[in-house]
Amino acid sequence: MSPRILLAAPGALDSDTQAFVLVGFLTLIVPILFICVLSGPESDRINDFYTAGRGLKPLRGALVLSGVYLPAAAVLGTTGSVAVFGYDGLFIALCTVLSLGVLLLLARPLRERGGYTLGDTFALRAPGPGARIATAVVTLSVCVPVLVVQLSGAGVTTTALLGMTGPGAEKTAIVMIGALVVCATVFGGMRGTIVIQMIKTVVLLGSALTVAAVLLHRFHWSADSLIDAAREGSGRPAGYMRPGLRYAASNDPAGTLDFIGLMITIVLGVACLPHVAMQLSTAPDGATARRTVRHSIGIVGAFCLTTALMGFAGAALIGAPAIVAADPGGNSTLLLLTGELAGGSSPQTNGALLVVLVSCAVFLTTLAAVASITLAAAGAIAHDLYTKALRRGCTTEGREVAAARLTSTGVGILSIVLAVWVQGWNVLFLTTMSLAVAASCLLPALVYSLFWSGYTRTGLLCTLYGGLGCTVGLQISSPVFSGTPLALFPERHLDWFPLETVVLVSVPAGFLFGWLGSGAGRRGRKGGRGRPGQPSGRREPRTTEADWAT
After folding, report:
1. What's the confidence (pLDDT) of residue 18?
2. Contact, 135 vs 384, CB < 8 A?
3. Distance of alpha carbon 405 from alpha carbon 411, whole angstroms
4. Does residue 503 register a pLDDT over 90?
5. What are the residues whose beta carbons fall under 8 Å from the beta carbon of 122, sequence distance 6 or more?
6. Cβ atoms of 334 and 358 closer than 8 Å
7. Distance between CA atoms of 134 and 400, rounded to whole angstroms?
8. Rounded CA gap, 225 and 542, in Å?
């Protein structure tokens, strides 16, 4: 995210309005954080810390899952995509809803066969520490880059909203936000995360509906007038409502493939993110998990509709050229639009309240997303690596919860350090890479583990490590890493792979690795005790909730 997101930069809002925004911001945020911490588990039970007791009903679960599905990068990025790219941006918003369709297919078997982490799900098919370690490696490879992007963007957005600029202010904001997230995760666990996700969803949806109502009123409640004005403000009226604008600068075949790859990345990747799968474990059973996802489709769909309206309004009222000048990625659209709707540099009280509402929604969105991802990463280390791989299940609930809290602190500190280090770099591609890793490693592993009886331990390891290596290797060799003006390293030239999105190659490769590995594993066991499609040898001891209770 560019440091030129200037909603509340000096000159954008006057000092009195900035002070009002700051007071309103703190008045809403501080009590929410206290509620989050106080909602934490009363005892050191892993069932409470990881899954909040598995008692979340469908409607509450849908509010939480919708919050998980709508991180700050998606909210700001989708609005900007619609504003700048029109038709292509609408498809990006649609893909978020379609991703819930993929999760709907996986929800029931994943909840019924899952435990606390994805490692528990894969351990049913491939017992032993090897699978646990591989799952933890992939989980961290997905979670840590997303945490860095979220914290980095949060530093820029928060300083802009509060009227501060400069690298020092942004880094300070990153440290403060990261510290708040660590406290919320360490003391709140899954219960605290659920509370903040529910509040975030209500505030975010409420602010989005408010902004949509204000802008529709400005256009006399005519969607056609809004879209026509957006087309004129886009700077490219002929192609704004036609496909292909997102990668118009690319050659036709490469641009088309990149756009298809981006759609596949969102649809398949988001559904398999570790913290999304972990959220399903809070449902009492598989049927409830499936109903939760169905309710979430309606909530996320409603928000994506308002996002499209806000994107069109951004193009109409601000203009796509001005948005791109402020931030090439378009992530400043929502903030700039809020300032415009609030009345410019000297808004009235109602306008200032609108700025406060949007500011709190963006901040809560970042805080909730980072807390969920941190908890998933901590679970992979504390549960899969420490309890299952290192201790072989021989530990107590109290020790594992203590390890999870310590790990949450470590993951948070690592993410803060990395976010401060890369501040000012163009690291947005890390989000796409994380989604590609989830789609190329975790999706094939889940599909094979849940639906194919012939899947073996060797196949699982080949899927996870092979898919991870293929995805990261291709991403490093793509134009988003080097060789182009907007790349992470524009002066380097490692870009031998022509596409910006890699899933068209890495997802089939992940499935292929799993199939070949399973075939090799069955041939290696031929003549042994194991039956085809079933793991052989000593099974790892599985610690259940009943075991902990005794």
Report:
1. 65
2. yes
3. 10
4. yes
5. 131, 132, 135, 445, 449, 460
6. yes
7. 20
8. 61
Give the least confident one: 12-21, 53-62, 425-434.
12-21
Structure tokens at 460: 């699982």
CA 440 to chain CA centroid, nearest Å: 16
Structure tokens at 49: 């810390």
214 half-sphere exposure, CB direction, 13 A CA radius:
22
Residue in this structure with the two tokens 């501060």, named with its chain if needed: 164
Select the more confidently predicted residue: 330 or 278: 278
Average pLDDT of the residues of the chain: 83
Two tokens, residue 185: 């995760």
467's tokens = 């898919």
What pLDDT, on the 0 to 100 scale, is given for residue 536? Answer: 43
Both tokens assigned to 506 = 């890495």
Q: Cα separation of 435 and 509, whole Å?
A: 15
Hey, is 489 helix, strand or coil?
strand
Which residue's entry shows tokens 């073996």? 456
Q: Helix (H, G, I), strand (E, B), or coil: what is residue 117?
A: coil
Does the structure show a pLDDT above 80 at 352?
no
Question: Among positive and negative, which fits the CA dihedral 80, 81, 82, 83?
Answer: positive
Q: Report the 3 state secondary structure along 4-64.
A: CCCCCCECCECHHHHHHHHHHHHHHHHHHHHHHHHCCCCCCCHHHHHHHHHCCCHHHHHHH
pTM surpassing 0.85? Answer: yes
Report the helix count and the strand count for the chain, using DSSP H and E.
Answer: 22, 0
